[in-house]
């Protein structure tokens, strides 16, 4: 790898690490303990009892979306010499995902406004739960675009000669999991819980690629200007 590629790779790896930490932290560490979509009153009580935690989850997702936008550009710069059209397409799909996830945060903010300014408590709790569920669907819509991006990135990594082909296979498998999981969420939601363990593949594949970006192989390869 050239020095320029190594610098871009390390910065991309750092942004990827931020995305992984912020994304998992927001969804699993901060939001999941507060939200139960089968219990509007319990969810409302949990959120109102921990407003800082709920808002911190929104901030973490916003940081993730901003980092995703930067990573999309960096990955394009790294892989454009491999297949310019495919690299550009991958960047566009990742940017669409980042925009959808960022815009979708308004559903969480709406839920918070409903709960914190409620006059009719029961109605506010029910409406807030709908917006919280809408956020979940919006997140999965973003993952449709990210799934396509991951498939493209898998091909780019496979063809690049910059990284081991195994990373390309892992990213492609992650893309399939994202696409199938989002399809199930929209078309057969009752199966979502059963499919959830498959997302372990995405965590492993993306974490492995993130670490490879952070610690790239030092060998001569295609130059990127």
UniProtKB/TrEMBL annotation:
The chain crosses the membrane at residues 12-34, 54-79, 91-115, 141-159, 166-188, 194-215. This is DUF4386 domain-containing protein. Keywords: Membrane, Transmembrane, Transmembrane helix. InterPro entries: DUF4386. Pfam families: DUF4386 (PF14329).
């Amino acid at each position: 790898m050239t020095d320029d590629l190594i610098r871009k790779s390390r910065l991309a790896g750092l942004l990827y690490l931020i995305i992984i930490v912020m994304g998992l932290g927001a969804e699993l560490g901060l939001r999941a303990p507060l939200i139960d979509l089968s219990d509007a009153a319990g969810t409302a009580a949990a959120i109102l009892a921990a407003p800082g935690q709920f808002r911190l989850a929104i901030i973490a997702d916003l940081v993730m979306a901003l980092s995703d936008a930067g990573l999309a550009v960096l990955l394009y710069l790294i892989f454009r010499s491999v297949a310019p059209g495919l690299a550009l397409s991958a960047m566009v799909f990742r940017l669409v995902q980042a925009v959808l996830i960022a815009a979708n945060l308004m559903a969480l903010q709406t839920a918070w406004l409903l709960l914190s300014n409620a006059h009719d408590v029961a109605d506010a709790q029910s409406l807030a739960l709908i917006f919280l569920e809408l956020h979940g669907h919006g997140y999965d819509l973003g993952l449709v675009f990210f799934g396509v991006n991951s498939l493209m990135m898998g091909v780019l990594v496979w063809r690049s000669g910059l990284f081991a082909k195994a990373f390309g296979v892992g990213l492609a498998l992650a893309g399939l999991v994202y696409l199938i999981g989002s399809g199930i969420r929209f078309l057969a939601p009752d199966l979502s819980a059963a499919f959830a363990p498959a997302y372990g593949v995405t965590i492993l594949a993306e974490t492995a690629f993130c670490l490879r970006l952070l610690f790239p192989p030092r060998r001569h390869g295609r130059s990127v200007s």
